[in-house]
Amino acid sequence: MTAPTPPNPETVYEISESGRQQLKGGSTSxxxxxxxxxVLADGKLSFGQIAKNLPDLPEAILxxxxxxxxxxxxxxPVKSAKSADSTDLSLLDFSSYIPPDPATVRGQRDExxxxxxxxxxxxxxxxxxxxxxxxIARQAASTAKPSSGSTYSVLVVExxxxxxxxxxxxxxxxxxxxxxxxxxxxVAAELRKPPLPDLILLDVMLAGASxxxxxxxxxxxxxxxxxxxxxxxxxxxxxxxxxxxxxxxNGYITKPFKFDVLMKSMRAVLGIR
Length: 273
What we know:
The chain is elongated and about 60 Å long. The protein folds into two domains: 78 residues, Winged helix-like DNA-binding domain superfamily/Winged helix DNA-binding domain (Arc Repressor Mutant, subunit A); 161 residues, 3-Layer(aba) Sandwich (Rossmann fold), CATH 3.40.50.2300. The N and C termini lie far apart (61 Å). It has eleven helices and eleven strands. It is an alpha/beta fold. The longest helix is centred in the middle third of the chain and has 21 residues. α2 runs parallel beside α10 and α6 runs antiparallel to α10.
């Protein structure tokens, strides 16, 4: 049988919906190395960058695994498309995803992604010791200034009404200005309203949408990519945590959580000392 042609190092890959199910499902038939590849297939990393983030896999074996994952429909190359080149949010829409321009992706520094992966792996080791109760928050290097000039605005993306109401009330008591959204369209609508939120608390399992997908689109938009995002979810599998951190989430908190833990995480990512 003829060996598959090695992937082009510049080809950018993204995970498919069936691939996401392999990461979410507890009964996946894929080996751990294949799952690691799917975690990195975020629509931003090229094959060459994936190879650098998986130095323990020989490139020939990695190329064959990528080929097999494509054949099974779990990942595919990103099609070239014009990326957002404006800070105009009036037409922001999460209903149809435009993958990032591969030329722009190639401009990202390899070491940035390597650091994200290294960070995620260190957190995974800590999770194993602590029984997979996840409380992660990146400490900001400096204090963020509220976009409104006075009060920090927080967009709460949560489709459970009782929990959404509880978080909103808690934030109000802590002198934050909460905004809420329960769906993909509501998230887009809130992000079109000035001023932009200073922080997003993002659930993963939303009706008709994935929080990971929303995170990826936020990070791909020039006007939104700097907003800190904390994932707040019941999903605690190591693949989920790694996927969020590699996609540049600023924090990851598993439900159920204590509000004081949420507040400490918010203050950390906003740089509030």
